[in-house]
Task: structure prediction
Amino acid sequence: MDSFREKASSARKKKLKELLLKSENRICADCGAPDPKWASANIGVFICLKCSGVHRSLGTHISKVLSVTLDEWTEDQIDSMLQVGGNSYANTVYEAFLPKDYVKPTANSSNEERTDFIRAKYEMQEFVKPSLRIVSSKSSTDSPMGSKHGHASQSFKSEVGMIEFIGILKIKVTKGTNLAIRDFRTSDPYVVLTLGQQKAQTSVMKKNLNPVWNEELKLSVPQEYGPLKLQVFDQDVLSSDDLMGEAEVDLQPLITSAAAFGDPDSLPDMQIGKWLTSDDNALVEDSPINVIDGKVKQEMTLKLQNVESGEVELELEWIALNQ
Ligand SMILES: [Zn+2]
Result:
């Protein structure tokens, strides 16, 4: 069984390598740097290390970055790459309406120039033929023309340039309980999550001290990650928004236990770790880390700090890159 899986997987990798070796794919689709070792599986392009950092910062709903050599590619991802046929074809779509005098980034461009171009090209799809630009939300996820941008990307605001990311953290902000009153009798709360340079936020719940968000936010996790910071604010249209408490999530138990157990797809449903309550953290009770249906997940309830009352519930999911 295992050797069958290995054979099938190495045959698919061989197809991928052949595609990579075509001359058009020997330079980065975005900046022209030689010898790209990364790819965006859903867009169908081969890209260099620096551009892959920008692609990751856009979130996997826009670009799913994989290493050509290290990652396990699924058959669908390889087929999607083969279907697009690599950089030339993808660029005829994504750069179809690139202005003649537009200066594309080069291998030595700054991260800022690179980021501006890559966001315009794939997130805003500014250079795509106008009739293709507006994408239906139920279009197939893996087609280059069906890349879903819009709702999900609006909550994902990233200021990161070139950073090596070790994984993606999905954070479902489930609900708040007994939040503090900031206006006359109530508050209009929203949650802001911060990890390093990145921020993501939920929508505002009008006049609600027990809001149910059920909103999923995504952040890329860099190698040198610190705690995930959570802040609840009251939207105040007349003055600046008031803080309604904050809490920190230690990501280390989640990330290290996931690394210790390896590919979650090969694990049965089980508990692999736990983040324990202590006097100096915000946990209401111990927070177990579980593998559920091949995904690494952690649920938690946080007691908000620096405020008179309030709790927030989260569900984290960890997706490691380059396992
Ligand atoms: Zn590049």
